[in-house]
Amino acid sequence: MPRIRQLAALTGAAALALTAVGAPAYAAGTEIHRTDTSPHALFAGNAQAGLLGNLVVNGGGTTTCTSATLTGSVDSDGDPLTMSSASVSGCSGIASAITFLNLPWTGTVQRTTGTTHDAIITLNGFSVRATVTLFGLTVNCTYGGTATAKGYNATNAARPVTSNNQAQVDMSGVTITRTGGSFPCPSSATIQTGAFQLRGEGSTAGTYNVPLEVVTPGQP
Record's superkingdom (predicted)? Predict the structure, then answer.
């Protein structure tokens, strides 16, 4: 049973894909700005979300992962958002491999109003697989669906990591559903803690140092 609980937790950790929060009130339109220009200019291009602290997942037990990265691109109106690569590592447990499937995933960034967060990030069609060897047998557990997470601007005091002055994505509270595999694959797992900083790619390819924000059109 302890190993099954570990499997439940680690399989959840595999699914970075993160679904969160209740129904927001969407603003009339979305613009993504870079905040290192005056006035703030529209941003469209490659962007990366990097883990702040640890990713903690509960699924009959607790697993802590120390590294995770999501990389893709976004248009200046938040649509489309494309996630082209994703990885997670530094996880304890019994999984021999964690693999993200069916990339790229597509989705949107949408400005919200009347909420403590500034945006909702949605990804459609995400899918992940945890490969576990148990008693000499290899078990593949897959999870997927539509994922949503809360987005925060750097100026929002409610952002999950206040010591970090970047736009952030909060994945806590996510429940991940099994799409393939049988016992001992758990039916679901929940991300307890998972905050990411979000930055755009600068003039040097592969360097993500452009600070971003999500605003309503017409905002400076």
Answer: Bacteria
